[in-house]
């Protein structure tokens, strides 16, 4: 097994091997060296064992992972992969062998250098062949936002079905992206350019890993997911490149279950009126510094029970006068035994758009919109992934498991789309995947990107960062339109109103006007959320903590503010009065500084560093192309944003560019842990290097 490891000036690994399997081993090895702590956190999260070293703060996730049967589903999917596609199964095994070899390295290794292991007393364990599938599943299980159905249930119950549309938006728990394809007829080189940025929770270490994989079969650069072999989402093979965005499809269902205990265990009422035995067992979750917690795991014919049980919610109570609450989750890999890993090797081997298209026919989870282009002028714009055929009601709310008509009936065909004037733009709006989803992002990011691209006849790869970093906030119009007619204001409020109406609507970090707009917006959100009409939504049900971000009223109002302000009527709420009061409130105590003073980066870390970083201020906002999301009304801190940026140039791959929020290394204190952060902040990109003369050889294996 001949393996060569090189690094470029940014510490990005460039791997060469004599076969695809050897290359997978090298990828696992170098990922363990660069991201040992991250890999172990992700392994434990997939298994539901992270509280054993992270403590009580990780318990809610571990409960969910156990009850949703993530690790067992990953194991089942790997067993199915072995039967259907033994080549890919062996390739995944080679990656796992590399991870285990890297984690087992002794003194001087990246693992030994990672201080988190010593702080938590954690020793790396061994990865199973199915662990990469578990990491993939744990990363994406909440990606489609199925807990939004719990929110819709609350809204319909308390406000009626018409209220659902008022709160429909790219909400606090979903992950989105920008992506655009400019065909050769619209570029200076005559070859296509693909660019964009995935929006996710900003994590440190990052969720994407820049990497270059080369063997006799293929030579690919792209953004890998640490813990998963290959390059799934964003890659350039030299002759074809592809990228994805979240399709915002609905492909996970929640069922209300009727459960009862018997002497033999637990039974669930099925649609045919028969009580049938549900699978049941208990598991123990270890919690650092606390007593172990026992978790009851129940699975019905629909899927694992993730909320409640035979006696109701976690505290053993049920709502007065209602049947006990139990909710099961039906999600595709649990039903089909397929996570779509059979797409990964064909993607690496792709030479043309047709190859990418065929590979994505095997894609399962999550459901994405794919854009691809090749050097022969081929382009692709399609949806890929498993969306079940089932009743319309399943997509909207919880459905009764005991009533017929809610069963899955196979897989839906995924739509395709063309280009308009040589361009395709996806930003989670109601686009090609519209027949497959319920809630989509507002059209602002899509419309802004499309408008910017229309302003110029020819584009180059070097032009794309200006689009990545655009800060125009079109959604501000709804609130500003409410400010315009206000009269009888105090002099301070009148001056603030006039200043905001003259503002250029750019959410730049150095803008005092952007800070004032955000302050007024937050004040309006808080006032609307406090209205008696919404009082019934202010206290969510006692569902597990992992679902609470989707159920909290204040974020829901914040992200849906545009809808709430523009609806013809809002339950008798005096919106002009609320806006007036918010304007006066901010005028009496205006922000002292600029937007970047409060709109600061707030990345998720499994364990905060002993010496906290002074995280930078950010430009952008939720509906800007530069999508850096706080929660209006709650905090300006941005936990979501561009988890990477990329520009794939089909004319010359070496003219492609990429960047991640922090760096190639996940080791605290490493020279490459945060060296890309200044570039990411400024909208600059790192060159994609493929010339070995510009690389430094690290080692042979």
Automatic annotation (TrEMBL):
Transmembrane segments: none annotated. The keyword Chaperone does not apply. The keyword Hydrolase applies. Keywords: Hydrolase, Zymogen. InterPro entries: Ntn_hydrolases_N, Pen/GL7ACA/AHL_acylase, Penicillin_amidase_A-knob, Penicillin_amidase_dom1, Penicillin_amidase_N_B-knob, S45. Belongs to the peptidase S45 family. PANTHER family: ACYL-HOMOSERINE LACTONE ACYLASE QUIP (PTHR34218:SF4), PEPTIDASE S45 PENICILLIN AMIDASE (PTHR34218). This is Penicillin acylase family protein. It comes from Streptomyces levis.
């Amino acid at each position: 097994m001949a393996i060569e490891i090189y690094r470029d000036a940014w510490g990005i690994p460039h791997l060469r091997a004599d076969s695809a399997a050897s290359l997978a081993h090298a990828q696992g090895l170098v990922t363990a060296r660069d991201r040992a702590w991250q890999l172990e956190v992700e392994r434990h999260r997939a298994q539901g064992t992270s509280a054993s070293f992270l403590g009580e703060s990780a318990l809610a996730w571990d409960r969910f992972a156990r009850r949703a049967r993530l690790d067992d589903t990953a194991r089942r999917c790997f067993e199915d992969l072995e039967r259907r596609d033994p080549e890919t199964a062996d390739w995944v095994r080679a990656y796992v062998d590399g991870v285990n070899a890297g984690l087992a390295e002794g003194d001087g290794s990246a693992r030994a250098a990672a201080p988190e292991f010593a702080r938590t007393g954690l020793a790396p364990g061994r990865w199973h062949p199915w662990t990469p599938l578990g990491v993939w599943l744990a990363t994406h299980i909440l990606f489609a936002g199925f807990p939004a159905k719990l929110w819709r249930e609350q809204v319909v119950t308390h406000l009626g079905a018409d209220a659902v549309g008022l709160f429909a938006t790219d909400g606090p728990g979903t992950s989105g992206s920008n992506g655009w394809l400019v065909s050769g007829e619209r570029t200076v080189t005559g070859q296509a350019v693909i660019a964009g940025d995935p929006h996710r929770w900003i994590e440190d270490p990052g969720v994407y890993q820049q990497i270059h994989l080369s063997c006799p079969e293929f030579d690919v650069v792209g953004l890998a997911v640490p813990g998963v072999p290959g390059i799934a989402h964003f890659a350039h093979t030299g002759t074809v490149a592809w990228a994805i965005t979240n399709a915002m499809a609905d492909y996970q269902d929640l069922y209300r279950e009727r459960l009862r205990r018997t002497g033999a265990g637990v039974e669930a009422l099925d649609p045919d009126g028969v009580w049938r035995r549900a699978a049941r067992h208990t598991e123990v979750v270890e919690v650092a510094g606390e007593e172990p917690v026992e978790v009851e795991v129940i699975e019905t014919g629909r899927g694992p029970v993730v909320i409640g049980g035979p006696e109701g919610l976690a505290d053993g109570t049920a709502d007065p006068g209602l049947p006990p609450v139990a909710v099961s989750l039906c999600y595709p890999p649990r039903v089909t035994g397929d996570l779509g890993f059979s797409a990964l090797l064909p993607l690496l081997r792709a030479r043309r758009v047709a190859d990418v298209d065929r590979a994505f026919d095997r894609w399962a989870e999550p459901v994405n919109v794919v854009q691809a282009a090749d050097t022969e002028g081929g382009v692709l714009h399609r949806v890929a992934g498993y969306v079940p055929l089932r009743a319309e009601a399943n997509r909207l709310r919880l459905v009764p498991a005991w009533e017929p008509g809610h069963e899955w009936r196979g897989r839906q065909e995924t739509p395709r789309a063309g280009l308009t004037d040589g361009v395709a733009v996806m930003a989670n709006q109601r686009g090609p995947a519209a027949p497959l989803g319920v809630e989509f992002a507002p059209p602002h990011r899509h419309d802004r990107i499309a408008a910017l691209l229309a302003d110029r006849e020819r584009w180059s790869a070097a032009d794309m960062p200006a689009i990545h970093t655009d800060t125009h906030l079109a959604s501000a119009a709804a609130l500003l339109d409410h400010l315009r007619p206000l009269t009888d204001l105090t002099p301070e409020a009148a001056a603030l109103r006039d200043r905001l109406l003259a503002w250029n609507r750019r959410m730049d970090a150095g803008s005092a006007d952007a800070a004032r707009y955000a302050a007024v917006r937050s004040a309006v959100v808080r006032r609307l959320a406090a209205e008696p009409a919404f009082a019934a939504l202010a206290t969510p049900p006692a569902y597990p903590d992992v679902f609470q971000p989707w159920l909290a009223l204040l974020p829901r109002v914040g992200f849906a503010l545009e809808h709430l302000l523009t609806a013809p009527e809002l339950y008798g709420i005096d919106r002009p009065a609320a806006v007036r009061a918010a304007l006066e409130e901010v005028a009496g105590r205006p922000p002292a500084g600029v937007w970047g003073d409060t709109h600061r980066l707030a990345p998720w870390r499994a364990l905060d560093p002993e010496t906290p970083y002074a995280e930078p201020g950010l430009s952008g906002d939720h509906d800007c192309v530069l999508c850096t999301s706080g929660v209006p009304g709650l905090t300006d801190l941005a936990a979501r944003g561009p988890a990477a940026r990329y520009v794939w140039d089909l004319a010359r791959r070496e003219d492609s560019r990429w960047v991640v929020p922090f760096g190639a290394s996940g080791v605290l204190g490493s020279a490459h842990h945060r060296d890309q952060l200044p570039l990411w902040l400024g909208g600059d990109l790192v060159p994609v290097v493929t010339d070995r003369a510009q690389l430094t050889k690290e080692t042979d294996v």
